[in-house]
Amino acid sequence: MSVLPGCVVRQAQDGPALAAQRSTPLLADEVLVKKGQRRLYLMRDGKPFRTYRVALGFAPEGHKEREGDGRTPEGRYVLDWRNASSRFTKAINISYPNVEDRARAAMRGDRPGGAIMIHGEPRCHVDPALADLVRYEDWTEGCVAVSNLAMDEIWRYTLDGTPIEIRP
């Protein structure tokens, strides 16, 4: 199995006020990821209005415990900034680690890791076989990866400040 190195990106500036835009139709008021189903749901008023197939960290079982473990975190976070020119096409940062994640890692003497994103496919791949790998296999270092078409929609239907819950 191939692993592509980290998903570190730079911060972009937030646009208009989040509260004013929440009333716009087709904006998600929550993102839900169900790791066991390999699905990401854009939610509005408790109901999904878009569903996407995802790839996770290369060791997807369980909650992320430390930097480099290949796990995708579980818990409640926020989409807090985005990068339109990421090496993974587009990327939206997930606010991992939170206070509890940092405390758990510190108790074990570990670093919790970070730079966990929802992102598209790598810009560098051109081989169709690799395209299938990044769409249907768990290959990230802990991020939630989607197709580029899905990423375009997720980008459009979410705002910075949108809550995200990642479940087992």
From TrEMBL:
One Pfam family in the UniProt entry: YkuD
Active site positions, chain numbering: 119, 143
PROSITE patterns the record matches: LD_TPASE
Transferase listed as a keyword: yes
Keywords from the UniProt entry: Cell shape, Cell wall biogenesis/degradation, Peptidoglycan synthesis, Transferase
MF terms in GO: carboxypeptidase activity; transferase activity
GO BP term (any one): regulation of cell shape
Metabolic or biological pathway: Cell wall biogenesis; peptidoglycan biosynthesis
UniProt cross-references to CDD domains, sorted A to Z: YkuD_like (cd16913)
Domain L,D-TPase catalytic, first and last residues per copy: 29-167
Family note: Belongs to the YkuD family.
The protein, known as: L,D-TPase catalytic domain-containing protein
